[in-house]
Amino acid sequence: MTELRMVALDLSLAATGVAATHDHHGRGGLLARTVHTARTAHGHTDMDHDRINAVLRDVAAAVKCRPHLVVVEWLPQFDGKGATTLRLAELHGVVKHWLHAQRIRYVDVHPPEVKTWATGKGNANKTQVLEAVVSTYGRLLHVDGHDQADAVALLTLGLAAYGQQVVPLHNPHQRRALGNVTWPTLATESGPVVPV
């Protein structure tokens, strides 16, 4: 079986969670980190280009391992005021277009599937997701905060979709979350890998 290289992104304007199966040198091993980005003065446009560039630089570093797939948490539903929804959509669009231009395959996973995978409940809050991820995967890697927990949940969900689960699957809710995502066939050095 081909050992998949995978990166997971919980994109955020302030703290993007990144989890991966390999480091930027291609060495195997689970890792998670947070990319903190501060708001900048963005001059004559509403788009904060410096902030988006900071996230994009870290995404570029994460995908130096040439992942077979990048798993991205889809935009959450916001009822918020202001331009947060638009700014986050801009970030998602820029990152996903950049991945596409680099010929790096990505898949979107809706937040309820991430929560269901981690906790069994599609409406779990961030603290419940963090606690569940630390409980399940904390012996394998350090998970520091909600952003990393979401990224680790995305990564382990993606790996399980291709039969490379990090821990055994025991709960029907995990299979339900897997089935609610349209997983692509992956091109690898050893040939195509299909979801199980």
By secondary-structure content and strand pairing, the structural class works out as alpha/beta
Question: What's the structural domain tally?
Answer: 1
Instruction: List SSEs in N-to-C order.
Output: EEEHEHEHHHHEE
What is the global morphology? Answer: globular
Contiguous helical run count? 6
Radius of gyration: 16 Å
Helix content: 25-40%
Number of strands: 7
CATH class category label: Alpha Beta
Question: What is the overall pLDDT average?
Answer: 92
Summarize the main sheet: 5 strands, mixed
**CATH superfamily (homologous) name:** Ribonuclease H-like superfamily/Ribonuclease H
Beta strand %: 15-25%
Task: Write up what this structure looks like.
It is a single chain. The chain has 196 residues and is an alpha/beta fold. The protein has a single domain, classed as Nucleotidyltransferase, domain 5 (2-Layer Sandwich). The protein is built from six helices and seven strands; from the N terminus they run E-E-E-H-E-H-E-H-H-H-H-E-E. The strands form two sheets. It has a five-stranded mixed sheet. A two-stranded antiparallel sheet has the order 6-7. Strand 1 and strand 2 (15-22) form a beta hairpin. Helix 1 packs across helix 2, helix 3 runs antiparallel to helix 6 (172-179) and helix 4 (126-137) packs across helix 5 (146-161). The protein is globular, with a radius of gyration of 16 Å. The two termini are 13 Å apart. The model has no long low-confidence stretch (mean pLDDT 92).
